Amino acid sequence: MTTERDTWLDPLRGGERGPDAKGMFIWVLLTAGPVWDIAHGRSHPLWLAWPAAAAAAGLYLLTTHYAFADRRRALPSLGLLAAVVLTAATGFGDNWLYLVIMLATATGIAVRGRILPLLLFAECAAALLLAVRGGAGLTDAAPLVWGTFTAGLIPAMIVALWAAIDELKATREELARTAVTEERLRFSRDLHDLLGHTLSVMVVKAEAVRRLTRVDAEAAGTQAADIERIGRQALAEVRAAVTGYRGRGLAAELDAARTVLADAGIGAVVRTCPVRAAPEIDALLGWAVREGVTNVVRHSGAAACDITLREIDPVEGDGRLLLEIRDDGPARGKAPGHGNGLTGLRERVRAVGGSLEIATPTDGGFLLGVSVPYAKAVLYDKEEQA
């Protein structure tokens, strides 16, 4: 499942791309050895040598192409490549032995499963026999055998690794879709629980208002006032529920920020004061931490980041909370405050009567400041009554 660390570090992982056929085509240059022998008159008859070299190059390119496009079609061409390479290396010797390394590379790309080690060992044994048959000693043949083995093993490991990564990505996307579906169902259930009974009561009282309007205006007014009170209460409950879906709260986001900054190699210093903010303010501050730290990770190039939360303008009842996120990175090329994330954050801050500051201090770096109202007395009274 997608973890919080994955969510934060996704911007750092752009541009991932696995191996493809084009990246493996370069090893067709190993046919330069046979071509060298042919050009210098060391491979006869020429009418057979030239077609053998061309066939080896063509079959290697074809096998590599099919290995990434349709692997089932790669196996027949790999068999033909093996037949051409081993026959030509046996008949001509010398630099034709380099084709065995090319064959091992194609094998590592095209073959999967338990049969791959067996094929690689067989090709290593064939390389050893061909080298000894050509007059080389075991010491001289060792580099050829080792080159054959690694030429097949390394591409196989790379392809297998990227196949596993693709499977993990597909699993992660499927889990994410499942999580979204479950969250939608939970959201629907919660809204039904919140509004089902409340709306039913409001309908009943509205019917009472309609009946009493001509009979008892005072009683009708009382019922209308009840409708207003119930509607306001329902609106507050819905806002609180939606706030829970939009953010996880300040404490959780600060913990996530410490983790992601450490993973990005950025030193983090977090200073907070003890506060008990209302749920919507707590969620908003958490959102600000997420947006600010995301910008630090993605754009700042900073080595350190300071996150500070303190109370300003304290009075007996209400006050304000100031959240500041500052980094020591170089000056940004883009004008501050124009990103979609910061624009959305600015709108949310204004909706609660707060203010947002984006600045580039004279001593360098970048500063994001969020100031929001802090209704201490009201919050504490509600908690004591509960």
TrEMBL record:
Question: What is the protein name stated in its UniProt record?
Answer: Sensor histidine kinase
- The question of whether Kinase is a record keyword is answered with yes
The record places domain Signal transduction histidine kinase subgroup 3 dimerisation and phosphoacceptor at 183-248
Where does the source fall among the domains of life?
A: Bacteria
Is Ion transport among this UniProt entry's keywords?
no
Which is a Pfam family this sequence falls into? HisKA_3
* Chain segments annotated as transmembrane: 45-62, 74-90, 118-138, 144-165
The molecular function terms of the Gene Ontology recorded here are: kinase activity
Record's InterPro entries?
A: HATPase_C_sf (IPR036890), Sensor_HK_TwoCompSys (IPR050482), Sig_transdc_His_kin_sub3_dim/P (IPR011712)
Q: Report keywords, A-Z.
A: Kinase, Membrane, Transferase, Transmembrane, Transmembrane helix, Two-component regulatory system
